[in-house]
Structure formats: structure tokens, C-alpha cells
Amino acid sequence: MDILITNIKELVQVEESPALKVAGSSMAVLNTIQDAWLYIGNGRILDFGKMPFQEERLHEPQKKPASASGDAASGTHLIRIDASGRMVFPSFCDSHTHLVYAGSREIEYIDKIRGLSYEEIARRGGGILNSARRLHEASEEELVEQALIRLHEIMMLGTGAVEIKSGYGLNVEDELKMLRVIKRLKALSPVMIIPTFLGAHAVPMEYVGKQEEFVDLVINEMIPQVAAGELADFIDVFCDRGFFTATDTDRILNAGMKYGLRPKIHANELDFSGGIQVGVKYNALSVDHLEYTGEDEIRCLSGTETMPTILPGAAFFLGMDYAPVRKMIDAGLPVALASDYNPGSSPSGNMQFILSMACIKYRMLPAEAIHAMTINTAYAMGLSEEVGSIARGKVANVFITCPIPAIEFMPYAYGSNKVETVILNGEIIH
Ligand code: NIG
Ligand code: FE
Question: Are 55 and 183 within one domain?
Fold first, then answer.
């Protein structure tokens, strides 16, 4: 099936020479084509340009978009979409989620409203430990079923690729169970899924006071089994006050590296934890959260391959101070934005809301925020050669908006779904 979209009011984030990520002042420059067409075939973006689309391209092989199928040339399997008044965006890439979990935690939400902090709730056995208990009791089938509903929801909101972490297992069996669930989701959903192993998410009750023994378990039992089963692409640690120290994190990342697991870690959400430094030391693909980022941390990130990733949903939901994104971009760093979809600190995977938050709370320009949640989050999953922009040869993961007056309307009109048509892998999903 080929798809030809014509009369696109604006084709957003077009790249003639694709870059792996966008940093600093370049983030404010968004390439677009007004009054455009887009040709999709074999699951890929084959070509695009300014209207009018020359119909003879479909009949003259030498003018046809490169590698378009013969069917399209004869017109039999070509689907035409008139996108008048509408824009086409590359699908959002969400590089940090925990969307496999059992049940929800709205009771803790009430505790939070009454004044308890995230850490206090965790110390009382709530938080991650609460989700771990529920996950232990749930079957793989139940977990798949619940996660598929969440995946469907984010897909309809414009997400085309997502990273999913383990981390509610906290023992060998349940961590492997979570990663098997993520593997099954990969086969069941058209959304591109990247699995990350997060064995060190919280210290289980039975290891309180002997945290190092739990770190040993992660290193000696979990990592080798995860690697042997090829169940994860990346390794994560919650490196923060009250969770895992920079020393614990160093040991775990070192062990992961030996098994080819590149780090993507939780860092500096609750304090200056040293997480950013240890992440950079191990050439992490990303360090995420970063509410506590000062001059030293910005300097440490400069010139590295590590993507600073901000999770506005968690800062919003927990009522924390927002990460100094403006300082990071002004210092020339790239910035990525992800949802952190999880039951404790961000029970939403709505990337359109993240876009609005980025502009309103972090003073990002819409162009910066759009780069941050497409190409830069694709980079933070190791996928930026495949998705994250409108470029020839990339996987055709795009969405068509409802009629909107300008690109800026996307973050401006917060709270409503502006995605009308979802195309993933070159197939119309909705
Ligand atoms: O990214 N910070 C650590 N982990 C998650 C929260 C997980 C939970 O509370 O269930 C986060 O915010
Ligand atoms: Fe997280």
C-alpha cells in the first residue's frame, strides 16, 4: 500500500540531510514546507515536495518517488489523502516510560494532596514497592492486556516510538517477567518499542540496610540473565537521594557495559546525586529528569554523546521545581522531552500535553520543544536514523492534525487531542 498525502498546509520538521540530534540554538530552527505533498511506500517516507504533485510521476518510472511499488504506478493500491487545512508531523518519540505496570496508585495521589512527599510515600512502602507487589501478583497476560490499552492511548495521541522500562520486578523472576511482557508488546503493537532493564529502581524491603547485597543481585543475577535472553537494549538505575547512590550506579553500569548494555539513567530528580556525572562517565545515551542541574552538570554534559532528557510530567505531578532547560539550551546542549508515563509520578503518556508544558513551564519555543520530542528522543532510543523527522528513507511514522491555524497552535491549545490521522510503518492505523 502506498499513500499520497496532498495539500498539506504545512509539512513539519523536514530534513534534507538528516541529523542524529539537534542542539543549542539550532533547536529553534524548524524546517517546514508549506502547501506540501508527502509520498509513502514500502512503509517508508519515499519523497515529499511543494504542491502541485505532478501526477505523471506515478506513471513515469523515472519520475516516480524512488522505489515506489509497481502497484502504485498503476494506481491500484495508492491511497490518496487530501490534507487541506491540516499539518503533517513526524510521530512523537517517547524515550522514557514505565508503561508496563499493574493497577494504579490514586490512593497515594490523595496522600500527596494531603502533603506527603514522593520520598515519604516510598519510605512507608508505597510508591515503587507498592507497584512491585501488584506486579508480582499479576499474570503476564494481565500485564500485556493493561499495557496494550496504554499503548493504544498514546498511539492515538501521536506517539510512534516508545521506550519501556522494567523496574517493578525488584527480583530476578519478576524483572524477567516484565521484560518478557515488553517483548510480547513489541510483536503486538505497531508502535516501535525499545526495552530497558531497570533492575535498580528501588531497594526492596527485605534489603533495607543491606542495599549493597541488592546491588550484587542486580549485577550477578539479573544482568547476566537479561543479557542471555536478549531482553533489553539499555540499562537504567534510579540514581538519586533515598534510592541508589552514585557508587551503586557506577558498579551497575560497569557490569552492564560488559554485557553490551548502554546506560540510560534516572538522575538528579531529587538532589544533586552525581547521577549526571556517572552517566556521562559510562557514555550514557541519556540522563533523565535533571531537576537538580547546576553549572557543573551542564559543563559535564557539554560535548558528550549523552542526551539530557527532561520529564515535565513528573515535575508537574510531584510539584517539583522545573529543570533549567533554558540554561541547558543556551549553553549549547541538546534537550529531549519524554513523558515518564508511570503510575507514581506521571500517570499520563500524552506527549501533546508534554509539548504544552515544555513551552509554558520551561519557556521552550514550540520549535525547540518539537525537536526535543521527536528527533532528540529518537536519538535517546538509538533510533534517530529510523524515525524522528520527515526525511527520505525513514520509517513512515507520521500523524495528520485536525485543521489548525499554525504550528504553535499545537502547544497553545493544551488539553485537547489535535491528532486526527495516525500512520505508522506506512499503514493508516486510524
Ligand atoms: O521516573 N524516578 C523513578 N521512577 C519513576 C517513578 C516510578 C514510580 O513512582 O512508580 C520516575 O519518576
Ligand atoms: Fe522514570
Answer: no
The domain that holds 81 is classified in CATH as 2.30.40.10
Cα-to-centroid distance, 62 and ligand 1 (Å): 53
Q: Which of 167, 340, 197, 346 is nearest to 264 (CA)?
A: 197
Question: CA 259, CA 280: separation in Å to the nearest integer?
Answer: 18
Question: Which pLDDT band, with edges at 50, 70 and 90, does 57 fall under?
Answer: confident
Distance of CA 330 to the CA centre of its chain: 23
Please tell me whether the peptide bond between 52 and the residue prior to it is cis, using omega within 30 degrees of 0: yes
The pTM of this model reads: 0.96
Taking only the tens place, the pLDDT of each residue in 285-306 is 999 999 999 999 999 999 999 9
Between vectors from CA 28 to CA 333 and to CA 303, what angle results, nearest 5°? 15
Question: Does 38 lie in the same domain as 69?
Answer: yes
Task: Tell whether ligand 1 has an atom less than 6 A from the beta carbon of residue 163.
Answer: no
- Which of the ligands is closest to the CA of residue 127? 1
The CA 341 to ligand 1 mean position distance, Å, reads: 9
